[in-house]
Specification:
Radius of gyration: 17 Å
Number of helices: 7
Number of strands: 10
Largest sheet: 5 strands, antiparallel
Oligomer: single chain
Strand order of the largest sheet: 1-10-9-6-7
Shape: globular
Low-confidence stretches: none
Structural class: alpha+beta
Strand content: 25-35%
Length: 242
């Protein structure tokens, strides 16, 4: 298993409020994590940084060499919930951070499985056998409209409310966390990314890059493509190769 990550400020923003982390946990095991902060320049940066730190510390502190699927899912839920409460408490104690929050998408890679948790609209894709699948569902206003049949997928890409998210880490004391499991196959590639990438690169473009380049080259290329498309937001990608 190999993991690479890259983040870029983009072409418009003055600060980078994204954060990512790659952690080796043991033989063939690791953590890949991406966060996209919100709440103003300081708030967004603070929220994503806190979430990255707390999730990493929780996973490293409680990871075991022998775990079942239920234990792995419980661990990532606990990690995200701990981050949620840490961000929320910081905002309560410091008025200048009021309303801050962050998306989270992570994969705990363990015994040929990816245990996935996410909140918000950062995404996780799987490239397998020449096809790309989006494994997370955006927690967003526009995605809810798509789910109700009020918008098509193509209309959603250009909708003015596409950046309004319906769940975020740190906004409330509790948060609903989506958790699921993927059994990995040899050659699978996972892409974790913020919406700075997914809003500017189509699934077809992402699929072509993941299918034709090394993961190091793919990370660089995806960042470059998003910037060439306008770079309207910070851009972060983490790619896992099983």
């Amino acid at each position: 298993m190999r993991i690479v990550g890259k983040t870029d400020i983009g072409m418009v923003r003055d600060t980078n409020q994204d954060a990512f982390k790659i952690v080796a946990l043991g033989t063939g095991a690791g953590l890949a994590l991406v966060c996209d902060g919100m709440g103003g320049a300081r708030g967004g940066d603070t929220a994503s940084s806190i979430a990255k730190t707390v999730i990493t510390e929780t996973v490293q502190g409680k990871y075991q060499e022998i775990m079942g699927a239920e234990a792995a899912q419980t661990l990532i839920r606990e990690a995200v919930l701990n981050a949620n409460r840490a961000v929320y408490q910081m905002a309560r104690e410091h008025p200048e951070f009021a309303g801050m929050g962050t998306t989270v998408v992570l994969a705990l890679l363990y015994q040929n499985h990816a245990y996935i948790a996410h909140v918000g609209d950062s995404r996780l894709y799987c490239y397998r056998g020449g096809a790309l699948s989006q494994l997370t569902r955006d927690h967003s206003y526009v995605q809810e409209m798509v789910d109700r049949g009020e918008l098509s997928e193509s209309e959603a890409r250009n909708h003015p409310g596409k950046n309004i998210i319906t769940r975020a880490v740190g906004v409330n004391w509790d948060v609903e966390i989506d958790v699921h499991t993927l059994e990995l196959a040899p050659g699978d590639r996972l892409l974790l990314c913020t919406d700075g990438l997914s809003n500017l690169c189509t699934d077809a473009q992402i699929m072509e890059v993941l299918g034709s380049l090394s993961i190091e080259e793919a990370a660089e290329t995806l960042i470059r493509m998003a910037n060439q498309g306008g770079g309207h937001d910070n851009i972060t990608v983490v790619i896992v190769e099983s």
